[in-house]
Design a protein that fits this description.
It is built from 13 helices and 31 strands.
């Protein structure tokens, strides 16, 4: 140990090392200087010693050598006079709430490290650091809790606790998309294993992004940009991430929606565990509220622009908590919360169509073509409330090469009365009604495949088959109501036929739809 100097960190060279340059070996052995360039600068400033002798970048190491990092005794950097949010401090440590957009340390003047002397009081302990030292790092764009050492012993002990993964951190983030309820993300980052656990808090629909999800993230390792890389690679990048986010979903001017909200660690002097937590910034809730477009907001705007209040009373929004009331609401068009969450644009389109406000195209201006399975699946998933289903025959209506309506049919079955076909799906493009489109598609199917009858089912929740009756279909029976289980956390709707999670019934709301009407068209 050098007289009059303070040792910040100490490292003993591993046994398997032999004749390795100090500048190469010392990368990542000191938490204060984790980069190769930082190590070289520390060596040039005379802060690194090997076996009690000042080291050079070309110093060769052998097993058992003792490497020490001393506090910089050169002229202190100019103080950056900006107020920091101090969450906790005592004689040994401090915790600040770092604002986004400021780097922790480095060669720049505007750093957290240069602002600490302006905000923290100096320790009266014998081993007090002349320069307060952040014990870990936060990205410049990330806000939240940063742990600061005020004494040498605090810095050494906390550094060892980080190495042993005894200090836990929790981050809160808004990510783009809907995530699973919880999960583990594992991958290699710069050749090193990295692990992050996550738990979903809640999610909301978004006009711009489809869904926004509020997550708690728990990094079990500490790789550079770990949380940002893990979320982006998993398909739900952090909102505002210009580095790893998708180019067409970049949010400008609001910063990164990632905040370190909790630290759990053993105090280096008092030897007791501490939990320090903060709330995420107000911008999290403010932005989520602006992005959410709930059903009532949209309907009220639609009423003002298009409808009378009397017409709007035909529509009823059914939230999860009222699902059990549904049987008494059969005379209204009912919008289920789970369907609004997953397919709001389709719900809007259906309502606009019901009230005759959709864009109108005449079938006589359209041409009919057979369409392939991928095109069918894509169109139905984007425009039909129940999505796609397996079909044998697929016909589409096109205007100027744009697909505007679709009908799909199952393979025909032979009965005594002849060949029977089932129409599985029919729908128009969202916010579009093709006048005469249903009739034109059915006529084309009859010409091409010559069935003796065509049958189909009409969902009573959204109508009673008026268009089919006009084409000569006959109401032959009513299909019983189908029971569904809706998972409250995700809005996932599961038919009773496929439901098997009876151990967790408390996580679901149970509902029955209104059933369906079977229609048959006899063909002479």
């Amino acid at each position: 140990m050098q007289k009059g100097k303070i040792v910040l960190e100490k490292h003993i060279v591993k046994q398997e090392i032999n004749k390795v340059r100090l500048s190469n070996y010392a990368v990542n052995i000191f938490s204060l200087v984790p980069t190769k360039s930082g190590i070289k600068k520390a060596i040039k400033r005379g802060e690194v010693f090997v076996n009690n002798k000042q080291a050079q970048t070309g110093t060769f190491l052998q097993s058992g050598d003792i490497i020490e990092l001393y506090e910089n005794t050169q002229k202190q950097a100019k103080i950056y006079k900006i107020e920091l949010n101090i969450v906790y401090q005592d004689e040994h440590i401090a915790v600040i709430n770092k604002q986004g957009g400021i780097i922790v340390s480095g060669n720049r003047f505007r750093t957290v490290e240069n602002a600490l002397p302006y905000n923290l009081y100096r320790s009266g302990q014998n081993d007090a650091l002349k320069t307060f030292r952040p014990v870990h790092r936060l990205d410049s764009a990330t806000c939240g809790l940063l742990l600061i050492a005020k004494t040498v012993s605090a810095h050494i002990k906390l550094g060892k606790e980080f190495e042993r993964k005894k200090i836990s951190k929790k981050y809160r983030a808004i990510v783009i998309g809907m995530t699973p309820e919880k999960g583990v993300i594992k991958s290699n980052i710069e050749g090193k294993q990295s692990v992050t656990n996550f738990t979903r808090i809640r999610y909301k629909t978004s006009r711009r992004f489809g869904y926004l999800t509020l997550l708690d993230l728990y990094p079990l390792t500490g790789r550079t940009h770990q949380l940002r890389i893990h979320t982006a690679n998993s398909g739900f990048a952090i909102l505002g991430d210009k580095l790893y986010g998708e180019k067409d979903k970049i949010l400008y001017g609001k910063g990164l929606f990632l905040c370190a909200v909790e630290l759990k660690f053993k105090h280096p002097f008092f030897d007791k565990f501490q939990t320090i937590g903060i709330q995420e910034p107000q911008k999290f809730e403010k932005f989520s509220s602006c992005e959410k477009e709930n059903f009532n907001t949209w309907l009220n705007r639609f009423i003002i622009n298009n409808l009378s209040k009397q017409a709007a009373e035909k529509i009823f929004f059914l939230s999860y908590k009222n699902y059990r009331l549904f049987n008494s609401l059969n005379e209204k068009f009912v919008v289920f919360e789970d369907q609004w969450i997953h397919k709001p644009e389709i719900i809007k389109s259906k309502i606009i169509s019901i009230f005759g406000k959709s864009n109108r195209i005449y079938a006589r201006h359209c041409v009919i073509r057979k369409i392939d399975r991928p095109t069918t699946d894509r169109f139905l998933n984007e425009n039909h409330i129940y999505g796609t289903t397996t079909s044998k025959h697929r016909l589409g209506l096109f205007i100027e090469n744009n697909l505007v309506a679709i009908a799909t049919f199952a393979g025909q079955r032979n009965f005594k009365s002849g060949r029977s076909a089932e129409m599985l799906r029919f729908c128009n493009r969202n916010f579009t009604t093709v006048i005469g489109g249903l009739g034109k598609l059915i006529k084309a199917y009859k010409t091409l495949y010559k069935p003796n009858d065509i049958m189909t089912y009409v969902d009573i929740d959204w109508g009673k088959g008026k268009a089919f009756k006009q084409l000569g279909f006959i109401n032959v029976s009513k299909k019983e109501k189908i029971k569904f289980y809706c998972r409250r956390s995700s809005g996932e709707r599961i038919s009773e036929k496929y439901f098997n999670d009876y151990k967790n019934l408390q996580k679901y709301e149970c509902i029955k739809n209104s059933g369906s009407i079977k229609f048959v068209l006899k063909i002479l």
